[in-house]
């Protein structure tokens, strides 16, 4: 390893990764507090608690299987298209679950947390970690191609959102290559550098780019009534102002 790569790796593993991790933790904490604040305000101000719970179910459903909510608002043209999107949701849920949980239980990552904070937890055996990493790669590639193939998502989603699965896949691909250097035609330290930088980029973007959402378009775009206080229709607003 030359001096330039060694310096870049030290910077990536040190301040760059710590910055990405801090940004992710603070950003996600902010989102959680805002969601809790909205829920509390709705619970206190809305006399009809069933409406509050219905909106909560809509938001949870939108995170897990958004096609169910989307179909209820804008029915798909055919049953086959509907089934396709429900299946895509299932694959996406597997992919996003692995993206969140798998890095926590990898041996190398557990060792890093133990060295940094003095805490550790059981790690996955190497063979299981490799299988789950491959499942993550395959499911992520399926989500990427499936989203591009969907005429519904091409119409609804912003263009940039179609590139979120490859961005999430890069740390997994480079992680597998760092665990098995003989599989890679590239230099081990260069692959490790890309692994750390891509992981830091994913962490930094998590609170802002909705990387872990199956659909980047917001629920309130599809169902305005999913907002806690939806705006009144123009006709009603005009009538109220005239009264």
Offer a quick outline of the entry.
With 243 residues, the protein is mainly α. Helix content is 75%, strand content 0%. It has a single domain (13-224), classed as Fumarate Reductase Cytochrome B subunit.
Strand content: under 5%
SS field, number of helical segments: 11
Structural class: mainly alpha
Distance between the termini: 77 Å
For the record, the count of structural domains works out to 1
CATH architecture: Up-down Bundle
Please give the number of β-strands. 0
Shape field: globular
Biggest beta sheet attributes? none
Uncertain segments of ≥5 residues (pLDDT<50)?
A: 236-243
Name of the top-level CATH class:
Mainly Alpha
CATH topology: Fumarate Reductase Cytochrome B subunit
Order of helices and strands: HHHHHHHHHHH
Which whole number gives the mean pLDDT?
A: 88
Radius of gyration: 22 Å
- Helicity, as a percent range: over 70%
Describe this protein with a few key phrases.
243 residues, mainly alpha, globular, disordered C terminus, Fumarate Reductase Cytochrome B subunit
SSE diagram, text form:
Blueprint: H1 3-45, H2 49-64, H3 66-73, H4 79-101, H5 107-117, H6 126-149, H7 151-156, H8 164-179, H9 188-209, H10 219-222, H11 234-242
Describe this structure in words.
- With 243 residues, the chain is mainly alpha-helical.
- The protein has a single domain (13-224), classed as Fumarate Reductase Cytochrome B subunit (Up-down Bundle).
- Helices cover 75% and strands 0% of the residues.
- The protein has eleven helices and no strands.
- It has helices at 3-45, 49-64, 66-73, 79-101, 107-117, 126-149, 151-156, 164-179, 188-209, 219-222, 234-242.
- α4 runs antiparallel to α6 (126-149).
- The termini are far apart.
- Mean pLDDT is 88; it is low at 236-243.
